[in-house]
Design brief:
The chain is α+β, with helices and mostly antiparallel strands.
Length: 315
């Protein structure tokens, strides 16, 4: 029996203490802690890493504070299109969905793809059809609405931007702090099995069916019992181009680096060089956790069988 560990994130970005009210800070801490607790309970009862990851992500998707499931950002067209992926490090099985709408918990749908389809990655209408077939819970548009995300989108919907326009101060204020609010979880269960998952609404004002790194196996999400489980958050295009999550695994497998060393190279050297703002969480098969980011903050937390239980936001 090995140590068991859960690590979660709720997105990275320009998250500064001076922009935060104490109520909001408390609400974030509370949301993160609840997600840690529910997946810790799964692991403590001997549950699998996959089920622990899923449990944490369902809770974070249901929490309107985070940009995933309920509370997802708006696309150029003013709708929510969500991406999610989950991977089981035991046998490298994986499931992912992109551009799904009205699915209450995209991570549930990704798990259905992993367990009950012959495929790995489903998108758009086909993925929604599969959700209906599998009886995955759907919700009307209103369920996903949040005023904050709507205001964020209104501020840039008439531009071609899908990210921060630094010349517009008002916009900067609106975009600040919530630029990347994706949620992710990685776990090592008591049998030494690893799993990772990520779920997101993507980036505000995205268009043309843009898909980020989160649902791409190897970029935003990866798990392999031989090395690690990783979930990323940040400017997806850079994480895709650098195949960030798999790169951590490769550095560990081929170069013998530790989880912390490998993540540090990818986040603070490789991604930084291409202005890839963001971060990632990871766990290895010994249950060691790491949380690394090159932005001002990252909503994050970890809990393990050795008694560590912590949530934090800033550097
Ligand atoms: N990585 C996500 C994306 O590009 C955004 C995020 O992490 O918040 O879609």
């Amino acid at each position: 029996m090995s140590n068991f560990t859960i690590v979660i994130h709720g997105g990275a970005g320009t998250i500064l203490k001076e922009d935060m009210t104490s109520e909001l800070e408390l609400a974030y801490f509370d949301g993160l802690q609840q997600a840690l607790n529910i997946s810790y309970a799964v692991l403590a009862e001997g549950g699998t890493a996959v089920n622990a990851v899923k449990a944490a992500l369902v809770l974070l998707e249901d929490n309107v504070l985070f940009n995933a499931g309920r509370g997802s950002v708006f696309t150029k067209k003013g709708v929510q299109e969500m991406d999610a992926a989950i991977m089981d490090g035991t046998d490298l099985s994986a499931g992912a969905v992109a551009g799904v709408r009205n699915v209450r918990n995209p991570i549930e749908l990704a798990t259905e793809v992993m367990r009950n389809s012959n495929h790995v990655f489903l998108s758009g209408k086909g993925a929604n059809d599969f959700a209906i077939k599998q009886g995955v819970k759907l919700e009307p548009d209103e369920f996903f609405f949040s005023q904050f995300r709507y205001d964020q989108w209104k501020a840039i919907r008439d531009s071609d931007n899908y990210s921060l326009d630094h010349t517009n101060h008002h916009l900067e204020e609106l975009m600040r702090d919530k630029k990347f609010g994706t949620v992710g979880a990685v776990a090592c269960d008591m049998h030494g099995n690893l799993a990772g998952g990520t779920s997101t609404g993507g980036m505000t004002n995205k268009k043309y069916g843009r898909i980020g790194d989160s649902p791409m196996i190897g970029s935003g999400t990866y798990a392999n019992n031989k090395t690690c489980a990783i979930s990323c958050t940040g400017h997806g295009e850079m994480f895709i181009r650098s195949v960030a999550a798999y790169d951590v695994s490769c550095l560990m497998e081929y170069k013998g680096l530790s989880l912390q060393e490998a993540m540090d190279i990818v986040v603070n050297e490789k991604l930084l060089k291409m202005q890839g703002e963001g971060g990632m969480i990871g766990v290895d098969a010994q249950g060691n956790a790491a949380m690394i980011f090159n932005s001002a903050g990252m909503y994050r937390g970890t809990r393990n069988s050795k008694g560590i239980n912590e949530v934090s936001i800033y550097k």
